[in-house]
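so im writing up the methods section and need the Glycosyltransferase record in one place, dumping it here so i stop losing it
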Amino acid sequence: MVSRSYSNLLELASGDSPTFGRMNRQIPRIMAVAGIMSNIDNDSKDTDLSPKDRIIIVANELPIRAQRRVDGNGSGSSSSSTCCSKGWNFSWDENSLLLQLKDGLGDEAIEVIYVGCLKEEIPLNEQEEVYQILLESFKCVPTFLPLDLYTRYYHGFCKQQLWPLFHYMLPLSPDLGGRFDRTLWQAYVSVNKIFADRIMEVINPEDDFVWIHDYHLMVLPTFLRKRFNRVKLGFFLHSPFPSSEIYKTLPIREELLRALLNSDLIGFHTFDYARHFLSCCSRMLGLTYESKRGYIGLEYYGRTVSIKILPVGIHMGQLQSVLSLPETERKVGELIERYGRKGRTMLLGVDDMDIFKGITLKLLAMEQLLMQHPEWQGKVVLVQIANPARGKGKDVKEMQAETYSTVKRINETFGRPGYDPIVLIDAPLKFYERVAYYVVAECCLVTAVRDGMNLIPYEYIVSRQGNEKLDKILKLEANNRNKKSMLVVSEFIGCSPSLSGAIRVNPWNVDAVADAMDSALEVAEPEKQLRHEKHYKYVSTHDVGYWARSFLQDLERSCGEHGRRRCWGIGFGLSFRVVALDQSFRKLSMEHIVSAYKRTKTRAILLDYDDTLMPQGSIDKRPSSKSIDILNTLCRDKGNLVFIVSAKSRETLSDWFSPCEKLGIAAEHGYFLRYSTKTFYFLALPLYLITQAPSNYYTG
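--- predicted struct ---
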């Protein structure tokens, strides 16, 4: 689909056709002057995604690994997956969801451009060279941010204010999350504006789709919509969206909501997250939503903002290829020798070292299991893989210290020579090593107290499906290779609703988690197989490709009305929004009104009173003497029928407009009508009530 944006609103309002020019289709397609677009194509044209379409994927981090060269003088050679500059080596980050998203769409189906930051800081004198290399070799547009600005934006506002609040942690004291800091908010807005400038360098608004990811860039839709009223824009939130009671404590709550509503499509992992967002829009902005043919939409100044509910999936091809690696097979063999040969059952936890992952609660549940069921002592091992923390702060350090002390205490209490009930792995693991642990573990425990999605259970299920070589290593009989897996998952994580065969727990209830762990160990083999089969069928069919294609199809559908609407941008700063009206709509002009008034002999003039004749912020709602004089002047013309329309009572309006003898009044939203002071009010029944009334019904 092709759309156009308008920069000259006066030209648009007059109905004149603006002048447009065709953009260059080649990379990079640079937008030199905002608002210069080509004419709208025929609306009946097929709008399916084609090889000519492009997706601009915007996220905080690019799916790129950057490594400083030790020798500092690279040859500049490159391959399909790596590239070198004089000082840097660049390669794709295979674990990045953004790259997996591209693979899921198919390399030939659509062109993908990435906009985001690098994980490494690039010196100012090298940024131009790095920019060109990433754009030409990877189709990535790096966003370079000063270190101080990035720290205030990411580690400040994102991680200390948005992240805790979205995970239901209120800053009741300075130690519990960050108190709102206006300077950090300003840094957040500044970074989002820098991202908008980067997108401007490559976007072709009439053709490109823009897909923004996660809470780091929540105000970016406003900056893009302000420059291109008809930009095709989607946003997906990968974190939870809190209930309105939590969200409304945020000082900039309306600014974020209005910014998100400048998107065409907003995506969430679960229905609960979407419901919370809609509730916030209703309570704080007065907006209502409705469902049409299975789609949820919010009406926002004439635009329909669609809501998408679909959890993200994993990259099946990547995980299956890792399962086939010789390194994975060797690691699986080592783990079987370490645990299986000794008759020990492995329970597995894989979490970031984060305060919301519930690692300590999981350890306490393991302690409770060993206390209540001493028969498991010496037979069950909990392997807890703790990935490095993404954030910084006092709370993270305290959580790490508590984790280490809890592990030490439990191992000292229940351990014995050659046996530790808990094995904590806090060193970074390669992906194939983690997959090997998945293969060997009898049960996976994901007990986060709050998490947006969490794909660990999905990875575990596919890993337990394995392949023929792993079956031989695990010594599964050829005639009985039914796969099995068990999951204990928190009810507060996004993937929980999609895993109906998992044992759901409240992670705060340590006793219940311990009972769930015991139940998972005691479940009969046929039931484990049935649960695994059900989960694997869902995970394998709802992968990252399915998620990406579904989102983009809905984004295209949501943008279908762009070419059939006339758009005006109104408001300043983050209050900017686009008013979309029908093509036949024309803005009233003084010249047209005067001309029509003079041409006609009989005129009906309906004047809204509340917030129109009377300003919205007025304390005294009575009409001024000047307003009364103007109304009397209009009423003296015998060719005019003048009515005031208001929500106020007939008594109030009769009192206020008593000097206007010939003025008609429609009181209480037109429920009562009066043509002049010489006539009585009468009940204005709807036409359908009058026509359907029985013959003896008195209408007055």
